[in-house]
Amino acid sequence: MNPKQADKLATGVLYTVAGIIIVILASLLGFILFQGLPHVSWHFLTSPASTFEAGGGIGIQLFNSFYLLLLAMVISVPIAIGAGIYLAEYAKKNWITDLIRTSIEILSSLPSVVVGLFGFLVFVLQFKMGFSILSGALALTVFNLPLLTRNVEDSLRQIHFTQREAGLALGLSRWETVVHVVIPEALPGIITGMILGAGRVFGEAAALIYTAGQSAPALDFTNWNPLNIASPLNIFRPAETLAVHIWKINSEGIQPDAAAVSAGASAVLILAVLLFNLVARYAGNRLYKKMTAS
Amino acid sequence: MDPIREAMLKRSRSAKLERRGRLISLFCIGLIVVIVAGIFYFVASKGLATFFSDGVNLWDFLTHSVWSPGVKDAHGSPQVGALPMIVGSFGVTFLSAIIATPFAVGAAVFMTEISPKVGRKILQPVIELLVGIPSVVYGFIGLSVVVPFIRSIFGGTGFGILAGTFVLFVMILPTVTSMAVDALRAVPSHYRSASLALGATRWQTTWRVVLRAATPGILTGIVFGMARAFGEALAVQMVIGNAALLPNNLVSPASTLTSVLTSGIGNTVMGSLENNALWSLALLLLLMSLFFNIMIRWIGKKGELK
Amino acid sequence: MKKWLNLVLILAAGLMLTACGAQSQGESITAVGSSALQPLVEAAAEQYQTDHLGVFINVQGGGTGTGLSQVQSGAVAIGNSDLFAEEKPGIQASQLVDHQVAVVGITPIVNKGVGVDNVSMADLRRIFTGEVTNWKQIGGKNQPIVVVNRAQGSGTRATFEHWVLNGRQAVPAQEQDSTGMVRSIVGSTPGAISYVAFSYVDKTVRELKVDQVAPTDKNVTTNTWKIWAYEHMYTKGQPKGLTKAFLNYILDAKTQDKLVRKMGYIPVTDMLVRRDATGKVIK
């Protein structure tokens, strides 16, 4: 077989592989949407869940998911960026750095229930935060940091060293070079990582069962005082997210329409992730254009 | 003192900023180290209690195959043999990584080298979407599609390592693919140009240059995929059968460390032997992923482009 | 970039600060534990809160073990449990006060295709200890039996094994930690058998009679159907204040008759017999 034929063959194989993946993914998404969308209605999206009767919605859970995601991201992204900068720019190449890197990677294989229990014992009980959004957000931070940090580090490393040299040659300090030259250039990679992290946060249940809790008390959407317990903004209220809700009704739900609620909630979850991805990508592109010369 | 001299002797604004920036980033990494150390300590202190305060023999723990911490055996020592779970975890993790790697790398090559447009517009968003599907949903699809499918082909109940592998394959595919894509994109374009200029075909360029240059990044992706497979509990638990038995074959019920851990932890009382034994599983999980990590790193060093 | 970072930091700090002052809002208690009891307590808490404004009752799952260990350590006010605290190793039952709020009956369920609808207690035991492995041995179709167990340490499993296995050890088999998963696995796997609380039986599975006794609430109240257990809410020491008021609300005859029944539990007020922690019947 000559190189030309090999090239043709390989291209064909790759097309097939890509095709198979698209088919698998598309049928998976199709399955979930097809099963779930018929149950989705305005009422379903806005009304609170019911504990044992039919006709419950997912309004509060949907809000909780987004709010928790926002909080978890606000806490974890700056830390991940800082740590990623350290690992990529400042860390010396020695065994301590290697040790840190390895332990971060190992942390990411920890089953989320362990992170959840850690959060339960440390945040909920030790720090007396109770079953709350804050505990949940901190647990998710622990859960998300390894992947995010690793991702930031990789994205920064991929920036060509000439960019850094150019920055330094202009008389910028290393930090200024990183902040003004390297990070803007690495932004698309960082954003991909954030989106993946956000997806995990959306879909995570086990880490939240013991921290953010699995009850969604009624919220008063006219009360925006973050100190009030019924306010949606309060970070000390227990908050069941959509994924936890799906888990809960599948495990011990006694609603007669549990299967339908679960299917509908899964479809909504996917659409929410989709929406989030689109918005994040759009915002990321805008930011990238604004911060770089391209 | 004249102003110029003063300005030269004082730290410049830049230098101050540099110091501050360095401190911030050091603080962040310090925080992560503290968290990591905290979790390690937390898991280790509970996990080691099984051996130190409850007097379980470490060797028995690793090699015995009866898992029933609440029941004592004939010699009065608790039955905590983790071998079936170790085998199960290794089985599903390795198999799913082996299946997922060619698909993920293939898709990544397709997205970066062959058809970046389709890749960016269709594949990438879909892949990112998949990460957000909760594992319960994967589990239910596995239960309603994969398990009956395996049952109709191989007989038996359909629950087992094979079903777990299929579900995990789909679950880790997005992680591995997107990290492989990042690795391939990071290969400088002049590598490709140089290779093409030498008269290499696209495939030769991809195979001999781009993939070689991206190997460490792809390996990291695989490690993360395996880590996710290793730590995944809910979905696997539903399709693998979750029976603490040594699997006879790929379609007989088995269990993984995480599935046993997750299903039992809420039912045990903290500080009791049953609870500690589950933490020992978590510790084992950490040690095993350490092992994976070192192994992959080692392979990566061997395959690195010099 | 830096501005953005600073903004985020300020925002986070602000949230933390506002948060610190936030906890002193009304009276609140937390109940943690058994996921089987959770829906009932949650619904009761919801009703109680609509009647008593400014009161907040936080109900969480987490499992019987978590409930008992947290109430024992004093971290939560109420620990929900499917079991008597005496039955759980590692718990000092003497410190805890038991409040039995409901009764659940547990019934064997099978896949619809097994061709059996009644089983003797002895055969049931032989199925779960692994002596009988095919449905035709006990008069069903020629189909291997697939045993699906609950997770070790689960309250439902402890109750089932107490009344069915008579102290013998169950055959190692599939284990699932939630009723919903057990039900869907039994519903979709030919030859499968497991056990769930009465209220979870639906049309995807079939319940079995044991020794010709049907699994009904009425048979539980007279102890004709043996496999049942109390749902407990434990407090550390005698309950006070809101905890006491809430427990009284659940035990109130009206709540028992309306809510408890409606949610598929058996009200304790219906029971014609009582059992103690060892399972002995006391009239």
**Largest interface by Cβ-Cβ < 8 Å:** A-B, 96 and 94 residues
Largest sheet of chain C: 10 strands, mixed
Helicity of chain A, in percent? over 70%
Radius of gyration of chain C: 22 Å
Low-confidence stretches of chain C: 17-24
Q: CATH superfamily membership of the largest domain in chain C, which one? A: Periplasmic binding protein-like II
Function (chain C): Involved in the system for phosphate transport across the cytoplasmic membrane. Part of the ABC transporter complex PstSACB involved in phosphate import.
Signal peptide (chain C): 1-24
Organism (chain C): Lacticaseibacillus brantae DSM 23927
GO cellular component, one term (chain C): plasma membrane
What does this structure look like?
The complex is a heterotrimer of chains A (294), B (306) and C (283). By secondary structure, chain A is an all-alpha fold. Chain A has helices at 3-36, 42-46, 59-90, 95-107, 112-126, 133-157, 161-169, 174-203, 206-209, 242-251, 258-291. Chain A is globular. In chain A, 55% of the residues are buried. Chain B contains 12 helices and 2 strands. In chain B, strand 1 (67-72) and strand 2 (78-80) form a beta hairpin. In chain B, 55% of the residues are buried. With 283 residues, chain C is an alpha/beta fold. In chain C, 35% of the residues lie in helices and 24% in strands. In chain C, strand 13 and strand 14 (281-282) form a beta hairpin. The relative contact order of chain C is 0.18. Chain B binds chain C through residues 66-71, 140, 143-144, 147-148, 151, 157-159, 237-238, 241-245, 253, 255, 260, 262-275, and chain C through 35, 61-66, 68-69, 73, 88-91, 146, 151-155, 169, 172-177, 181, 184-185, 188-190, 192. Chain C: Residues 23-253 form the PBP domain. Chain C: Involved in the system for phosphate transport across the cytoplasmic membrane. Part of the ABC transporter complex PstSACB involved in phosphate import.
